[in-house]
Design goal:
34% helix, 16 helices, globular
Length: 516
């Protein structure tokens, strides 16, 4: 989601494994030779992973099932082979989020995190249709345009995306991606998969499990949210305030007062609601002007501020700097908050957003009926906002926070009825297999409350929260989290998870004097 898609980067959905990639050493020696039902020569995009053979290929898949006239789409995959002699004891299929986040270019990062498991397990990486090395089906809306636009501009971009895709909009669904993964599984001759989903992957993998239950061995979901997600994003809004209190209280010495930080947030949100500020942002793709309103503040605090938390706990992060920036804003100094906005905005890319926009608008629950005309959709949505109880969006107004989301609220309200499949069902028959669900307790993107609901979808599930970690907890550098995941994928049990409670607090910029 950004909720899952994640501080978004290319494809809007950030994966913590994507961040890992930037700090891992480049492989010095690797084999990309192919064996089995794959090509004789590795394609140029096939990754190298030190100490492992990597097999790559592509499958032609129907763009829209039962509509052959719309053609096919090529879906790319890579298999990182286990290093020990003998056959693999299992195959783990990973999706890092998005929707539309790429997997194949993160092969080295996944191999680092799951190093022990890859001794006797293979790793299957699939670039979802329309992303990465898989065949693009663009709609003409870029990441930077979508992220930096006002809410009106975002809604207009969504409508333009749908118009440009036309009947191809129905080709972008979680069900289609799940079926692509299963077709690749069958092509490779693998009997069962262990599923590992991060962020949006925690939505996709239950969809796969419901459609192909006999092919699932076990499941790990990290940075999770349920299929029955809240279209008004209330869990994230409430987690923003909780996270401000936690980062303030956990510092030694205490750097800020958590209750005051939440009050400063409410004051800042109210001020921006009526008096937005303008912030110029320079990226490698151009200069943008962001109208920083309550909704952009919400996006900054629940999405961007959840990114990279716990990666280097002793170094400044957006979340750790927020209490100070909010304190200064309330006192009339806008510079610290402006700086955070500018720094977060530098990563805007030119990646086409069709895989992100179409999946979220096709699949996710909405506060209106898909079959209603636009005027009735607005009536239904406004009625849902009006029914929100005071405080359900924490320090924000209901309208302000929901407009800060890029995959919820009203952003998809203009998505057309025609060419659009029914939303993804939220109540599914899921296989009775071992399931591990992980959250970071400083993640407002997919907070603990959402992770617990994701775990409750399964009969045999375990939920763990990683202290002082953001979205998603695999970013943690000691491999505590990935070690637990790897142990679970091998044995069906989490083993000793005590390290999750011992992760160090993040650095927080002091607010002096501490008010409260």
């Amino acid at each position: 989601m950004t909720y899952k898609s994640t501080a978004r980067r290319a494809g809007l959905g950030v994966s913590m494994m994507a961040v890992m990639t930037s700090v891992l050493p480049t492989a010095t020696a690797a084999s990309a030779s192919l064996s089995g039902p794959t090509a004789d020569v590795a394609p140029a995009w096939c990754p190298t992973v030190d100490g492992h053979q990597v097999d790559c290929g592509r499958l032609d898949r129907p763009l829209v099932a039962e509509k052959p006239e719309l053609g096919e789409v090529k879906v790319s995959y890579a298999v990182v082979r286990h290093s020990a002699p003998g056959p693999a004891k299992g195959t783990v299929a990973v999706n890092p989020g998005g929707p539309g986040e790429t997997s194949i270019d993160k092969a080295e990062a996944f191999a680092w995190g799951l190093e022990g498991l890859l001794k006797d397990h293979d790793l299957l990486l699939v670039d979802p249709r329309g992303s990465g090395t898989s065949q693009p089906v663009p709609c003409g809306v870029t990441d930077a345009e979508y992220r930096f636009g006002t809410r009106d501009q975002q809604r207009a971009a969504v409508e333009r995306c749908a118009k440009n895709l036309g009947p191809k909009t129905a080709g972008y669904t979680s069900a289609a991606t799940a079926d692509d993964i299963d077709a690749i599984r069958a092509h490779l001759g693998v009997q069962k998969l262990s599923l590992y989903g991060l962020s949006y992957g925690t939505y996709l993998m239950p969809v796969y499990a419901s459609r192909h239950p006999e092919r699932v061995r076990s499941i790990v979901l990290s940075g999770a949210y349920p299929l029955q997600l809240d279209p008004l994003a209330r869990p994230s809004a409430q987690a923003v305030s909780l996270n401000l209190r936690r980062v303030c209280e956990r510092g030694v010495p205490v750097a800020c007062d958590g209750r005051q930080a939440v009050q400063d947030l409410a004051t800042t949100a109210a001020r921006l609601r009526t008096q937005p500020i303008t912030v110029p942002i320079t990226t490698e793709h151009g200069v943008y002007t962001k109208r920083f309103t309550e909704d952009k503040l919400a996006n900054l605090l629940f999405e961007a501020a959840s990114s990279q938390v716990g990666f280097e706990p002793d170094k400044p992060t957006l979340l750790g700097r927020l209490p100070h920036a909010l304190d200064r804003f309330v006192k009339g100094d806008t510079a610290p908050l402006r700086k955070l906005v500018q720094e977060e905005g530098k990563t805007g890319s030119t990646v086409d957003q069709a895989p992100y926009i179409a999946v979220t608008c096709n699949d996710y629950r909405k506060a209106w009926s898909k079959d209603a005309p636009l005027s009735e959709r607005w009536r239904q949505y406004n009625a849902a906002l009006a029914a929100v109880r005071p405080g359900e969006h924490g320090a924000f107004s209901a309208k302000g926070f929901t407009e800060g989301t890029t995959d919820a609220g009203d952003v998809c309200i203009g998505w057309p009825r025609e060419n659009t499949p029914d939303p993804q069902p939220t109540t599914l028959e899921l296989p009775d297999v071992p399931v591990l669900v992980l959250s970071g307790d400083l993640d407002a993107n997919t907070p603990d409350a959402s992770g617990k609901k994701a775990a409750a979808q399964f009969r045999d599930s375990r939920f763990f929260s990683a202290r002082n970690m953001g979205h998603v907890p695999e970013l943690e550098p000691s491999r505590c989290v990935t070690g637990i995941s790897a142990h679970f994928l091998r044995t069906g049990t989490p083993g000793d998870a005590s390290c999750l409670r011992a992760l160090p607090p993040i650095a927080v910029t002091p607010v002096h004097p501490v008010r409260g």
